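Recap from last week: sequence in, structure out.
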Amino acid sequence: MNTTWGKLYGIGVGPGDPRLLTLLAVEVLQTVDIVAIPKSKMERESVAWDIAKVHCPSNVRLIELEMPMTSDQQVLAKAWQDGAQTLLGQLKQGKSVAFITLGDPSLYSTYSYLLNILQEELPQECIATIPGITAMAAAAARINLPLATGDEPLLILPSTEDVAEYLDFPNLVLMKVSRRLPEMLTLLEEREKKAVLLTRLGQSGEKIRWEPKPLEFTSDKVDYLSLLLVKKDLLGRKNDESESNN
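Predicted structure tokens:
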């Protein structure tokens, strides 16, 4: 029996402000049968859904997928497989499904892992990935600081990597910094590198810290939704205040 597949949309909902979704993303969210929401723990609220829900019909069906934040590859593989099978079950029934994700679905997104599994069964014409504004693009815009100019290189690194060897890059974006922030700030201070720490861009609790110091964070857990922009020159854009709250 031939399967009449529904369509899968991977939608980047941007960094935090619901107004930063693309017109295409909004159009899809208003017409799909199901919105799939990844959650690190089922009892937690979803930041991605909090951003996207203003654009969705009140009666849209929601499916929550648990995607735990862990380094255990076996746990992750099972979560990805379970999530993919849940989505396939709906797609095989002809349902259209929007999987929402923070930022852009092609950059450090759970969507990429699910997509690898789904592509084994789902025809390519039944998949549409809709890009979103990345946190680094939103961060640069928020402080009116270019990510790179002219022929300068731009390097993006997760903080799980050893970043010391890359600090001579003129433009560096350090993502996933919450786990190692004091250590990374100490390294930047030793190398006399300037940085801006941006947290929860476009959301309640947004914070911008220019040239943050490692001692500020020894006992303060840093929000997971944080990144560092490291520049050879902050171009005199530092505000009079060391911290800005939205």
